[in-house]
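Enoyl-[acyl-carrier-protein] reductase [NADH]: structure tokens wanted.
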Amino acid sequence: MIIKPKVRGFICINAHPAGCAANVQSQIDFIKAQGSIGSTPKNVLVIGSSTGYGLASRITAAFGSGAKTLGICFEKPATERKTGSAGYYNAVAFDKAAEEAGLYAKTINGDAFSNEIKAATIEQIKADMGKIDLVVYSLASPRRTDPNTGETYNSVLKPIGASYTSKNLNTDTLKIADITIDPASEEEIANTVKVMGGEDWEMWIDALQGADVLAEGCKTVAYTYLGDKLTWPIYGKATIGKAKEDLDRAAAALNEKLASLSGQANVAVLKALVTQASSAIPVMPLYLSILYRVMKEEGTHEGCIEQAYRLFTEGLYASTPRLDDVNRLRMDNLELQPETQAKVEKLWEEVTEENLLELTDFKGHHEAFLNLFGFEANGVDYDADISPLVEDSFL
Ligand code: NAD
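Answer:
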């Protein structure tokens, strides 16, 4: 079939296998071009490994330090008539590239929140990997079923306390109009914490430690976003921010548990980027279109792979890691430079439907969005007839 993007609101419902493979390869090429990042980590578990920051972390570990990697993701395989999800094609492409490079790589496709997938992961680690020295927690999900009660919780993206009105860009129509989002109820806040907070990260580390598959000196990291004034009402100080605060609580609890292994748990603060998760957040597409313009002009623009590389070299494996006063690894330093934020705030005030393309990098944002699904990748013939089916070796 000839595969062209089918965009529906903030999601693209299909993906291009060759384009996804090209994206994975270009991230691998970036990491290889940086040279070795050292001999650690050696045995890495990435939970949320198929897209965005998790995929970039997996590529950095495998191709930067030659690590064995086990990835956990929740992706849709292709059928003869329907393409698979982008993460499915990414994971297949990663496994193939790793194998060709002589690197151990296995992918488990299933619900990371479940007890079954945790048990299957431990079994695989015991069989093939020995002990894990880095656990990356990079899940982004709108819902979670508690494995012990069977109850399913949904997260919401809402302000807390009062309703919030803001400029918002409709990425389909390119119209900019005010949106008002009502505040979350107490139950919605609690449910969002249940989905995106630290509970499942703790459950993973408890299960891994309980099965004795964590190495001496093991590190674990979970990802968050803090942002600044423009995004606080919908992110930092909103329901998702509350959930992310719970990661700090979990990191402190995990540091106590990992002390017996001289292990370490950190939250890493990463920059705002176009990913499937961030595209769903109101206000973000306009903020990102402006941020991309400003950071590209400053020469400070980074994608997932550049951030993951810095996280490993300036954070996790640095002799003096870039830590803040609450023990978080800070990779959002360039986005949050006061002069960068001041430029973004000024453009935010000035932007209208009429000057959107002139004042912002909406074009770059849109390309980055399509790129997530394997479209607009360099060197891919999008007019070619291609099978949506690819062979996976997922467990
Ligand atoms: P993403 O949507 O690109 O990736 C999410 C990953 O989680 C995918 O691999 C997906 O398969 C996996 N996943 C989702 N539900 C799952 C489940 N039930 N079981 C197994 N796997 C599942 O998201 P992302 O933007 O890379 O976000 C990853 C983390 O980084 C999140 O914690 C997010 O809050 C954080 N973060 C994102 C940004 C940003 O701007 N995108 C910035 C800072 C931090």
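The mean pLDDT is 96. The chain has one domain: 7-371.

Cheers.
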